From TrEMBL:
NCBIfam families: malQ. One of its GO terms (molecular function) is 4-alpha-glucanotransferase activity. Keywords: Carbohydrate metabolism, Glycosyltransferase, Transferase. Pfam families: Glyco_hydro_77 (PF02446). Belongs to the disproportionating enzyme family. Its EC number is 2.4.1.25. This is 4-alpha-glucanotransferase. It catalyses: Transfers a segment of a (1->4)-alpha-D-glucan to a new position in an acceptor, which may be glucose or a (1->4)-alpha-D-glucan. GO terms for biological process: carbohydrate metabolic process. Transmembrane segments: none annotated.
Length: 663
């Protein structure tokens, strides 16, 4: 392999893939060249291609250590690369923070690889220094070739997972879109006080976790850009989640009194309506945020917790274009989120909050600008053709450059993981396949093209393992759709939970799988934000909504309704197999749903989530994938307040928890 073909491989540009229908597809030359162009590579410059191939393939063998060296934490085993003539030499190894200082004779070590270049033979030697703590450490290796330095990553075999090896341990949780929570005090937008109330009520019924939507920072100056999956910065929090009536313990009594004397916090609250009015909510809350900041600002220099927060954030994220007012909002947001997790732990929840890391950020946002060098030029993240989108999907999120992500010892990815593991018990990673490969969408000669591009999977997975142990955070990977087999096996070996949606769990005949065959190492749910809530699905209301918003026509509606009847029949067959109940097409959605959940409660999956939308008897979807302005995505609120939902569903939740605990 040489020339462009070699560079495609070294830069992660895919060669082929298998479509959802089994069709084998080979990417053409124009597509693969286009992907390299997005990485800033002139494919007509043969000298550049030769230099790139040398830098990515040959040069690593000519260096004893790369900038990052992976080691197993159990044995402290890592690789050194040396000319074969140095096979019998001694090397001195120092890992400063671990107290390691020893000499190793390479002749006693195992050879695990080799490379030939210009009549020189290079070998990879496996060295072990003994068990190491998990983390990142500076290492220095000295020998006759010189002194070499690296960041040694001491990587555990698996992510942090207290469920590992305990098949009898099963937990029940709730999945929510926090902003949809209804109350008479939250300005029409669910906030951290609502979350505290949900934690308290859930814990009373033995619920162990609450899966949140992404809480990432969006756009204060464009409040109608509401998708939590198209954020400005994934390491920062959307300040609209701040609960203004729960800040006194953070900002202090004196500040709180000044704030109350300067404003009427009950004015202009937007409680009513089925949908969140982001413009009104944002305008109202930001006016109050500014008054709160004005009341607090005289104390800012003397506020030790704020100054510490600011120093830590800037050290991790660099100098972002945020004013002190905006950093103040981040401080308050982080403190309230932390308190929610502390409360969950105090009340006996085994996991507590589960955060959600979106797959990407927007070009207009702060994250993209801060890490511009880590991204491609002109490539967006998307998905290949599937039954729901025959032309594929372009999500409009800029694609990271797999080579540039390595900069500064993968600082960008480390910061993403750390920020989203902070103050939670578990992290859900949206589209976890992105650790291995992403579908790129780009334009070349006015033609829309797409292909898979592969990422430094081993290093990204290592960061997840290390950070999860450092923060004692469980990891859940959303692995719905076409998943490369190496990803599936690696997630399982790494004790990362998968994600199962009951709607999609079918056998080869299209029938719903036996509940006993559902994965044990998975978070199982009936639905998520991208599919209709169960009651809307059973009634077909989601199809009627699409017609009402002219997303489909009448003919398409009729076909989808016929297909839905088939699916409902399959669900009834499944229920008749696993329950003694008598159900038919005229059974209420609530009866069907509760019996489905009772069967699933006994399934092997160690994590099971109830969607709060379904407890709320919600008929309307919160999001219709593939739409933007056609449907009011990410705005639909719940029908009932939390107190009413739990009053309606308390017996049902108790029954589910009893089933889970008996297994």
């Amino acid at each position: 392999m040489e020339g462009l073909e070699q560079l495609y491989y070294l830069h992660g540009i895919g060669y082929d893939f298998t479509k959802y229908n089994g069709e084998y597809v080979v990417f053409d030359e124009a597509t693969r060249k286009g992907a390299l162009h997005c990485c800033g590579i002139d494919t007509s410059d043969q000298n550049l291609i030769t230099a790139k191939n040398f830098a990515l393939d040959v040069a690593p063998w000519m260096q004893m250590l790369a900038e990052v060296t992976l080691a197993s934490s159990e044995m402290g085993t890592f690789e050194l690369k040396v000319p074969s003539s140095y096979r019998g030499h001694l090397v001195d190894i120092k890992i400063f923070k671990c107290g390691v200082a020893l000499s190793v004779n390479l002749a006693d070590c195992r050879e695990v690889g080799n490379y030939q270049y210009n009549n020189e033979h290079y070998i990879a030697i496996e060295v072990s220094v003994g068990a190491l703590p998990v983390g990142y450490f500076d290492m220095e290796v000295t020998c006759n070739l010189g002194t070499f330095r690296t960041e040694l990553w001491s990587v555990p075999k698996t992510c942090y997972n207290p469920y590992l090896g305990k098949s009898e341990r099963k937990s029940l949780g709730l999945s929510i879109q926090l902003y949809t929570l209804k109350s008479n005090r939250n300005f029409g937008f669910g906030d951290f006080s609502d979350l505290k109330e949900l934690v308290c009520k859930s814990a009373n019924f033995g619920v162990d976790f609450i899966l949140l939507n992404p809480l990432h920072m969006l756009f204060a100056d464009q409040p109608e850009k509401a998708s939590p999956y198209s954020p400005s910065h994934r390491c920062l929090i959307n300040p609209l989640y701040i609960s203004l009536d729960d800040v006194e313990s953070i900002v202090g009594n004196a500040c709180w009194r000044r704030f109350l004397s300067s404003t009427n916090a009950n004015e202009n609250r937007a409680f009513d309506g089925q949908y969140v009015d982001y413009s009104v909510v944002s305008q109202t809350k930001y006016l109050l945020f500014e008054k709160l900041y004005d009341a607090w600002a005289p104390e800012s220099d003397a506020c030790a917790s704020f100054q510490l927060f600011l120093a830590e954030q800037k050290a991790e994220l660099g100098e972002l274009p945020l004013s002190q007012f905006e950093w103040f909002l981040q401080w308050v947001s982080s403190a309230q989120l932390e308190r929610c997790q502390e409360l969950a732990t105090e009340l006996g929840m085994s996991i507590g909050l589960v955060s959600d890391l979106a797959v990407g950020c927007t070009k207009e946002g702060m994250e993209f600008q801060a890490y511009r060098d880590c991204f491609t030029h002109g490539a967006n993240v998307g998905a290949p053709p599937d039954p729901w989108a025959e032309n594929g999907q372009n999500w409009g999120l800029p694609a990271p450059n797999p080579q540039k992500m390595k900069a500064h010892n993968f600082h960008y990815f480390k910061s993403l993981v750390r920020a989203n593991m902070r103050s939670v018990g578990a992290l859900r990673i949206d589209h976890v396949m992105a650790l291995r490969r992403l579908w790129w969408c780009f334009t070349q000669d006015e033609k829309e093209l797409g292909c898979y591009v592969y990422y430094p999977f081993e290093h990204l997975l290592a960061i997840l393992k290390i950070e999860s142990h450092l923060s004692s955070t469980i990891v859940i990977g959303e692995d719905l759709g076409v998943v490369p087999p190496e990803v599936t096996s690696s997630l399982e070996e790494s004790a990362i939970f998968g994600n199962t949606l009951f709607y999609f769990e079918k056998n080869e005949n299209g029938a719903f799988k036996s509940s006993e065959k559902l994965r044990s190492n998975a978070l199982t749910m009936v639905a998520n934000h991208d599919v209709p809530p169960f009651h809307g699905w059973w009634s077909g209301n989601d199809i009627n909504v699409k017609l009402a918003y002219e997303i489909i026509n009448q003919e398409q509606r009729q076909k989808q309704l016929r297909d839905r009847e088939v699916e409902k029949g399959r669900l009834l067959d499944w229920l008749h197999e696993f329950t003694d109940g008598c159900f038919d097409m005229d059974s209420s959605s609530e009866v069907i749903y509760q019996n489905v959940m009772k069967v699933l409660a006994a399934c092997p999956s160690q994590l099971l989530a109830i969607q709060l939308d379904d407890l709320d008897l919600q008929q309307v979807p919160v999001n219709i994938p593939g739409t933007d302005t056609e449907y009011p995505n990410w705005r639909r609120k719940l029908n009932h307040e939390l107190v009413d939902i739990f009053e309606m569903q308390q017996e049902f939740i108790k029954q589910l928890n009893e089933i889970r605990k008996k297994q």
